[in-house]
Please model this.
Amino acid sequence: MSARQHSPSAPAPKTPEGRDPVAAAPSAWWLTGTSLTMAGAAVVLLSGMATAGGGPEPATAATTAYQPDADRVGELVGHTRTAHEGMVPVVEAMEEFLPTDGSHPPLDLTDASVVHSWRTDVREAADHFGGPSGDDTVHEAVQAGLTSSVRLLSMSVEAYAGAALVEDEDLRMDTLHIAMDLRDQAVRSWSVAATHLDMASVDTGHGHVHLYLPAAPDSGALRPDGAEAGSGRDPGSGGGHDH
Model:
């Protein structure tokens, strides 16, 4: 990755004694490939759901598996809403240090205590989804997409934290851009999963539920059915609504 132009005015953070700042970068490069694999798998899995049940096909075992279970969908909506409440403030706070407007992130990183709070909030969000059950259902597919998104956001936080260990300013800027990319992938992955959760919620009689993460305009994040682009909240809803 080529070095990016940036302002040299911000002082570089001290590298802990004995820590090679260049050695911190390869782990960050690995994160990008992993994140794209996870996001791609989630999108492929969820995209298959969009066509299932779309036409008058025979009631085979395959199509039956995509009929959402009302109780499980309702439970997932509740868990997703709680996780969403914890993730939105993190994504909004990260905007100051990992901007979505295309500009370079500041080399002067935020306090370690702030990063620790991000890490804690994202881990708590992950706890609401648990592990996969292994069944081929709408519930399982949506949950897998949401879980992948939370993991991507967690990787973004860790990449940002790792940037503080990189003394070379060019390498630190590259690491920060990787953290930005991971954050963007997390928002897009969540957007796909949240859209299918909304569809499943409607299909099972729970009504529309808009639980999107804040995203930059034209970022590719889905905003169907009147949900505002660039915001994790519906107009006047405070983060999601049923109707």
Observations:
- The mean pLDDT is 74.
